[in-house]
Design goal:
Layout lengths: L1 H27 L14 E4 L2 E4 L4 E7 L2 E6 L5 H10 L7 E2 L4 E4 L5 H38 L4 H34 L2
Helix pairs in contact: 1-3, 1-4, 3-4
Length: 186
Amino acid sequence: MSDIKTVLESAKSQMEKTISHLESELSKIRAGKANPSMLDSIFVDYYGAKTTLGNVASVNTQDSRTILVQPWEKSMLTPIEKAIQAANLGFNPQNDGVLIRIIVPPLTEERRKDLVKTSKSCGEDAKVSLRTIRKESIDKIKALQKAGLPEDEAKGGEVKMQSIIDEYVSKCEKHLEQKEKEILTV
């Protein structure tokens, strides 16, 4: 039974990582509100080395429409501004000599619908990953059965695996519902 327990624990661990990845992907989809994580994918040329924006500046929100980027060094203002423009996120950074202000434009209805489709696509990718983990785990359980594990224990392991995947698919659905609600809220 401990072998099945190991397989199930490994599957749970992989599924947690899948849900974490989904959360990360959904946080990158902007819902019209300013969020410092919108700039997480930006790399700045810091004395010849590509460095994440968070390592060369403080990134905060002033209100629901404004992101403030305050570099640790004033000499980094221009490289940060260029990196934000080069990232092609649809932002127009405003450099006032002390910090960079980014006004997040409101989303159109059409853009909101596109973002919902994108988030559903991310959710579907996560579900496919979850199903793959389930299949691999059930294959491992069947291999254990061939190696001498009693059939009733193997069937019990498969039933437990199905309940685990149901739980994680449910988590995935909840994240998607929250993101869709966030996107469609004006």
